[in-house]
Amino acid sequence: MALLNFKKRETPGARTVNPQVEALLDGYSIEVMPRTAEKVDNFRDLLPEGTRVYIAHIEGTPIEDMVTTAKRVAAEGYKVMPHFPARIIKDQATLEDWIARYQGEAGVSQALVLAGGVKEPHGDFDSSMQLLESGAFDRAGFKRLHVAGHPEGNRDIDPDGGMKNVEDAMQWKQKFSERTDAEMALATQFAFDADPIIKWANDLSAAGITLPIHIGIAGPAKLQTLIKFAIACGVGPSLKVLQKRAMDVSKLLLPYEPTDVLTKLAAHKAANPDFNITNVHFFPLGGIKTNAEWAIENGGASTVPAAKQG
Fold first, then answer.
1. Residue 274 sits in a domain of what CATH number?
2. Mean pLDDT on 220-225
3. Is position 141 within any domain?
């Protein structure tokens, strides 16, 4: 197993790896931004070779910075998946320019296509569906397209707190996946409670949504940091998990780790092999190094096996 400079740490007293969690962590992905990537001297010291690295495009980040980060991450041996947030893309020409830059300078052939968190669109596009319908990714020969999933809904899409618009969009994405040659999957917002995640995933399956789910998981971080991000990102019912933890004085000052939610999801996956959550996608809210080290300690140190290329 060639992992360049990467190797699993073997330290005295290291935690025992749960084999079910280890299996679920195979082929995990992680999200970075240009400014957070700059803090990492060498990704090879932290991530398995071939890991999919999403590059989040936050409003105001120049495309030049995004492409530079993509080029650097790809050169270190990783599969780069930049965000294409519809609401900050001015027009078709801008979309095609971004695609051409990523392809030409960093060899990118995959994208996370999403609406983005901006309230008012900067131009012609308002939704991921409009970007997909444009045909730009198809003409460029992108091999993989991920779209957003929302286990606890999204008030930007359903202001009343319901799920109707989210569910309608999911049906559209499913139908689009059936008429494109690109491999597709859902990359979801992070959540903290396994039970609602399992119900949501099973409901999708019952509704005929067969897209593989890459479940969003917040990496280890200070509790206050997670609560801040959870509120800002509109995390719903599972926010109560953090709030309950905050009321426990014995845990208040301890960093949150995603052990409980992943253990429960992994156990469900082991008992139900056809369960449609196939991969873990980390949001390293407490830092890339902290998240990567947690993954290593919990068995996430294997290259992506052929069965989990999705």
1. 3.20.20.220
2. 81
3. yes
